[in-house]
Amino acid sequence: MSEENVETVQAAIERFNQAGHWDLNDVTPDYVLDLSRSRGPQRGVFYGREASDRALRSFNSDWKSIRIEPDEFIEAGDDVVVPWTAYLVGRDGIEVEARTAWIWTLHDGMVVRVCLYQDKQAALEAAGLSE
Prior knowledge:
Elements: H1 2-19, E1 27-35, E2 44-47, H2 48-61, E3 63-70, E4 74-76, E5 79-90, E6 95-107, E7 110-117, H3 120-126
Parallel strand pairs: 1-7
Antiparallel strand pairs: 1-2, 3-5, 4-5, 5-6, 6-7
């Protein structure tokens, strides 16, 4: 199932890069978006599709454009660890690069949780892996 999980995550990121926003088609109704480690205004844990969608749309509205480039996809059972660089352009044209890592947790091909970490090592440790 791990390879299928990676493909699901890859497809979600590709759709984001094409559409400019997250579609939540591959998430369960009780999906959790954990941004408790965020340093931005959307910090918190968001339960369910509606709350997650509001938080994501709020974040996206702050930017003229966002593009995500994953560095790699690391399989860890039901988890996929994805360190990435986000290239963001603000409404006034200022360009920002943000490097973070995420753990996507999937069950039966559906995303049940996505959790932000500030760096790859923290995400690997949370997934029970080490570099």
